[in-house]
UniProtKB/TrEMBL annotation:
Name of this chain's protein: Branched-chain amino acid transport system permease protein
This protein's GO CC annotations: plasma membrane
Transmembrane segments: 21-39, 45-63, 70-89, 95-115, 122-142, 173-192, 226-246, 252-285, 297-325
Assigned keywords, A-Z: Cell membrane, Membrane, Transmembrane, Transmembrane helix
Keyword Repeat: no
Mode of membrane association: Multi-pass membrane protein
Keyword Repeat tagged: no
InterPro entries cross-referenced by the UniProt entry: ABC_transp_permease (IPR001851), LivM-like (IPR043428)
C-alpha cells in the first residue's frame, strides 16, 4: 500500500499527486515524443488522429463532464474551427495567428449560442445542440463563396516558423504540431480545474441550486464553460481539417457529435484521462475491426467484404456495455483496479457502489 503524506500546501495544488505519478506522466510523454522514430508513417498517422480526437474530447469534457451540460452539437463547432482556420489561411494570415484565431472565433460564437440555451437542461439542451449540428450542413452550403459549399475546401501545407508542415509530406512534423497542441490544452485544462472558475463548473454540475446558494453565477458559469468548450473544439476542428486536407459540408455530420459524446462516456465522464482513453477507442476501433475481418477471413475462409454499419454497431454495443456494467468508463475501471492493489486485502466492493440518490436541492428544479 502506497500512502501520500502531504506536508506542504503546494503538494495539494500541484497537477500530480506524488513523484510516482509524475514519473509515469514523464515516461508517457517521452514515449509519445520518440514515436516518430519507432512507428511507421501509417501508425504515426493513426496516433495523430487519436490525439486530435483527444483534443475534441477535452473540449466536450469541459461542458459535459465538468459542467454537466449535455451537448450533441459539437460537430458544428468542429466545422467552424476547421473552416475559420482555412479561410484565414486563404486570406494570407500566417498559421501561427490563424490557428489561435480559429479557436477564439469558435469560442466567441459558442458563448453567443449559449445565451439562449442557458435555461435549458438535460434532454432539451441536447436537442437544441443537435439542431445546431444539423443546421451547420445547410449553413455551409448557403455560404458557398466562403466555405466552398458542396465542393468543399482543400488545405495544403502550412508553414510554422519556417518549417513546412504537411499531413502527407512531413507526417512527423504534423504529429509534433498536434502533440504540442495536445500538451498545451491538457495543461491548460488541469490549471482550469484548479481555478475558481473550474470549481464553479463542478459546482454547477453537481447542483445548480446549491452552487447559486454559494454565490456562483450559474448563467455566467454556463456561458464561460460553453465558450471555453467550443474554443478547444474549434482547435480540434482546425487540426482535423489539416489532417483530412479535403472536406465539405458532409464531413462534420451529427454522427461526429454522437461519437464525441460516446467517446467521453466510454473513456470516463468528469476526468481528463477519460478523454484520452475514449479517443484511443474511437481512433483505433476502425483499424481493429478491419484487421479482425481480415484475420477471420484467413482463418475461416471467405472474403473480407466491408459490412455497412459494422463500426457504428460495435461502438454502440460497447457504449451499452459500459452504461450497464461500468458507468464510470475505462478510467473508472482503472481506478477500481488500482485501488484494489493499493488496499489489498482491505478492498471492499461497496467502496465504488453506484450512487442512486440525488441531492435534495435538485428536487426544487
Amino acid at each position: 500500500m502506497r500512502i501520500v503524506f502531504k506536508t506542504d500546501y503546494m503538494q495539494d495544488i500541484r497537477p500530480w499527486k506524488d513523484g510516482h505519478q509524475l514519473s509515469l506522466y514523464l515516461i508517457l510523454l517521452a514515449l509519445v515524443v520518440v514515436a516518430p522514430w519507432i512507428l511507421n508513417d501509417f501508425y504515426l498517422g493513426e496516433l495523430t488522429n487519436v490525439l486530435i480526437w483527444a483534443i475534441a474530447g477535452l473540449g466536450l469534457m469541459i461542458l459535459t463532464g465538468h459542467t454537466g451540460q449535455a451537448s450533441l452539437g459539437h460537430a458544428a463547432f468542429l466545422a467552424m474551427g476547421c473552416y475559420a482556420n482555412v479561410i484565414l489561411l486563404e486570406q494570407g494570415v500566417p498559421f501561427v495567428l490563424a490557428f489561435p484565431l480559429a479557436g477564439l472565433i469558435t469560442g466567441i460564437v459558442g458563448a453567443l449560442v449559449a445565451l439562449p440555451a442557458m435555461r435549458l437542461h438535460g434532454i432539451y439542451l441536447a436537442i437544441f445542440t443537435m439542431a445546431l449540428s444539423i443546421l451547420v450542413d445547410d449553413i455551409i452550403v448557403l455560404t458557398e463563396p466562403w466555405s466552398g459549399g458542396v465542393s468543399g475546401k482543400y488545405v495544403g501545407p502550412v508553414s510554422l516558423f519556417g518549417l513546412e508542415i504537411d499531413r502527407w509530406g512531413t507526417p512527423w512534423a504534423f504529429y509534433w504540431l498536434v502533440l504540442g497542441v495536445t500538451v498545451a490544452v491538457t495543461l491548460g485544462y488541469i490549471n482550469l480545474l484548479r481555478s475558481p472558475m473550474g470549481r464553479s463548473f463542478i459546482a454547477v454540475r453537481d447542483s445548480e441550486v446549491s452552487a447559486q446558494a454559494m454565490g456562483v453565477d450559474v448563467a455566467r458559469t454556463k456561458t464561460m464553460s460553453f465558450g471555453l468548450s467550443c474554443m478547444v473544439t474549434g482547435w480540434a476542428g482546425a487540426l482535423m481539417g489539416l489532417y483530412a486536407t479535403v472536406f465539405n459540408n458532409e464531413t462534420f455530420t451529427v454522427i461526429i457529435s454522437i461519437q464525441l459524446l460516446m467517446m467521453i462516456v466510454i473513456g470516463g465522464l468528469g476526468s481528463i484521462h477519460g478523454a484520452f482513453l475514449g479517443a484511443v477507442v474511437i481512433g483505433f476501433l476502425p483499424q481493429f475491426l478491419s484487421i479482425s475481418k481480415e484475420y477471420v477471413g484467413m482463418v475461416f475462409g471467405g472474403s473480407s467484404v466491408a459490412i455497412p454499419g459494422l463500426e457504428v454497431g460495435v461502438f454502440g454495443l460497447i457504449l451499452i456495455a459500459f452504461i450497464l456494467f461500468e458507468p464510470m468508463g475505462l478510467y473508472g475501471r482503472w481506478l477500481k483496479i488500482r485501488t484494489w492493489f493499493e488496499l489489498f486485502p482491505f478492498y471492499r466492493k461497496d467502496m465504488f457502489k453506484r450512487q442512486k440518490s440525488y441531492l435534495k436541492t435538485e428536487r426544487l428544479r
